Amino acid sequence: MSSSEVQASFLPYAEGLGFRSEAKGLFLEYKNNLGPDYYRPIGSSGILLEVERGKTTTNNMDLLDFWKCHLCRSADYLFLMVPQALKHNDAMTPKKEYNAVVKRIETFFVEGNHTNVREVHIFGY
User: Fold this and answer.
1) What is the C-alpha to C-alpha distance for residues 62 and 78, in angstroms, rounded to an integer?
2) What is the pTM (predicted TM-score) of this model?
3) Residue 69, pLDDT score
């Protein structure tokens, strides 16, 4: 299943909660081409919602999503959707992506490693 198929399965619910798809303009002050999958404003802050699939830990997409939230002046919260387990082919033993992402992200919430990201909620699908 592709990340776009995962997104399509919950998009009506996300939009019902006030998320907008690929919000433009959140990173205009940066030269790189950043943008979240979805964004929802909340008061003076907001939530970035990112959906990952095959490159979650292989290409550090979970860390890129955290970095985007750290840079975003309009969001202090990150909702990160990742596969519970991931296989790139039938012969492969499933990688425990969800557990790996939890371990990687929790290091930012250890004393001395804090950033301006207030909370990350990791959802496994």
Assistant:
1) 11
2) 0.90
3) 97
